[in-house]
Specification:
This protein is α/β, with parallel strands linked by helices and 159 residues long. It is built from five helices and six strands; from the N terminus they run E-H-E-H-E-H-E-H-E-H-E. Helix 1 links the parallel strand 1 and strand 2.
């Protein structure tokens, strides 16, 4: 019997990678046994997520956006690296840079963002980590949650 091919994932993270760890753990369960994280990418050289990935035997890649003439050029390189590895699905797990249209268009419908609050109410620039939770409390909300959405060209927007 031919084994079922794995779905190749890339995780983009800028920080600790706690969502990355949850993804790695989930890929070891029957629910996500067909998914395999092939690459963890970061725009931060010291992102703990890169260490988590290396410890799990997953390829890591760091690219510094400041070394490129523009964000578009930066994401052209990121896109080339993802295509080289035949990535089928991209997961943004604490990735703090806004994606440029070129990468969103290339992977349309295949980029998911994990956001630590209910969108659209608590999204946009600066809404990550403790900031988002402080905003929820300050707004007097009685409930909070997380959002996972398909990424489009707008920040913290999509379906």
């Amino acid at each position: 019997m031919t084994p079922t091919p794995k779905i190749c994932l890339a995780v983009l993270a800028s920080g600790a990678g706690s969502n990355l760890q949850a993804i790695l753990d989930a890929c070891r369960t029957p629910l996500l046994e067909r998914a395999q994280v092939e690459l963890v990418f970061s725009n931060k050289e010291d992102a703990y997520a890169l260490g988590r990935a290396a410890k799990a035997g997953i390829e890591t890649l760091f690219l510094d956006p400041k070394k490129f003439d523009s964000r578009t050029e930066f994401y052209e390189e990121v896109t080339a690296e993802l295509e080289k590895r035949r990535i089928e699905l991209i997961l943004l797990a604490g990735y703090l840079l806004k994606l440029e249209p070129n990468i969103v268009q290339r992977f349309r419908g295949r980029i998911l963002n994990i956001h630590p609050a209910l969108l659209p109410k608590f999204g946009g620039a600066g809404m990550y980590g403790p900031n988002v939770h402080q905003a929820v409390i300050k707004a007097g909300e009685k409930e909070s949650g997380a959002s996972v959405h398909v990424v489009d060209e707008e920040f913290d927007h999509g379906t």
